[in-house]
Amino acid sequence: DAGVIQSPRHEVTEMGQEVTLRCKPISGHNSLFWYRQTMMRGLELLIYFNNNVPIDDSGMPEDRFSAKMPNASFSTLKIQPSEPRDSAVYFCASTPRGRSGNTIYFGEGSWLTVV
Amino acid sequence: AQKVTQAQTEISVVEKEDVTLDCVYETRDTTYYLFWYKQPPSGELVFLIRRNSFDEQNEISGRYSWNFQKSTSSFNFTITASQVVDSAVYFCALRADKLIFGTGTRLQVFP
Fold first, then answer.
1. In degrees to the nearest 10, what's the CA dihedral of A25, A31, B74, B91?
2. Which residues of A touch B (CB under 8 A)?
3. Is the separation of the CB atoms in B65 and B80 below 8 Å?
4. How high is the pLDDT of residue B108?
5. Number of H helices, E strands in chain A
6. What is the maximal distance between C-alpha atoms in chain A?
7. Cα(B26)–Cα(B70) distance, integer angstroms
8. Cβ atoms within 10 Å, residue B50
9. For A29-48, how does the pLDDT look when each residue is reduced to its tens digit (9 = 90+)?
10. Among A43, A105, A108, whose Cβ lies nearest the Cβ of B91?
11. Closest by alpha carbon to B20, among B57, B75, B93?
12. In 10 A of CB A81, how many CB atoms?
């Protein structure tokens, strides 16, 4: 079975440009998470969805960040306009239906560099 | 509020040594889940183990073992006879509703 699929794997963009990161969760999973990893702040939860509905977006750093999940098989994380401090690895993860103890499976990450 | 503390930032050992990675957590929930993930140099996050708050039985999987103690809110991870391939960053995580990670422990195993 395919795991969580993220694209692009690597992106370098100029400050001020819009960045869109994409995620396809594992089929049948109903919860989706976006995390950001930096050296300074470690792994931070940005937002998570249950059944395509955003449940907690308190980790979204500011209005420049937005996330959508239009259907059960696709989610986007958008940064507009991007800034150098947004450079990080962005992970998408999903978990199946059921109790909160279900294992969360991570994609390979999108490595973003904003210059 | 939930919190996970991994006090050890970095540990270096020589191959075949045993090493224990510490994890202390805080939560007010009575039902919660604890996880360990491994992040090798390639960057992916690899699931290692999940325990629920009602199961304090320790677990062993090959060279890996986990010690869960609710009395001290700890969920420590031991690697026996470490190998160079164990070199990675290891994250402890807690989930009541959302999954919160500790800051990670970088393990370097030298030949």
1. 30
2. 33, 35, 42-43, 45, 48, 55-56, 89, 91, 93, 100-101, 103-106, 108-109, 111
3. yes
4. 97
5. 0, 11
6. 42
7. 10
8. 17
9. 989 999 999 988 899 999 99
10. A43
11. B75
12. 14
d(CA A19, CA A1): 29
The distance of B19 to chain A (nearest Cα, Å) reads 22
Alpha-helix runs per DSSP H in chain A: none
Taking CA–CA distances from B38, the nearest residue in chain A reads A106
Please indicate whether, in this complex, the C-beta atoms of A105 and B33 are within 8 angstroms of each other: no
Q: Does B47 touch chain A (CB under 8 A)?
A: yes
Quote the tokens at residue A80. 């507009």
A98, two tokens: 């059921």
Q: B108 Cβ partners below 8 Å, 6+ apart?
A: B10, B11, B12, B13, B87
Cα–Cα distance, B74 to B105 (Å, whole number): 15
- Opening angle at CA A48, ends A105 and B54, nearest 5: 60
The tens digit of pLDDT for each residue in B26-58 reads 999 999 999 999 999 999 999 999 998 988 888
The total of other beta-carbon atoms located within 10 Å of residue B71's CB is 6
Question: Three-state secondary structure along B39-91?
Answer: ECCCCCCEEEEEEECCCCCCEEECCEEEEEEHHHCEEEEEECCCCHHHCEEEE
Residue A14 sits at φ, ψ, to 5 deg, of -90, 150
Which residue in the block uniquely carries the two structure tokens 């045993």? B18
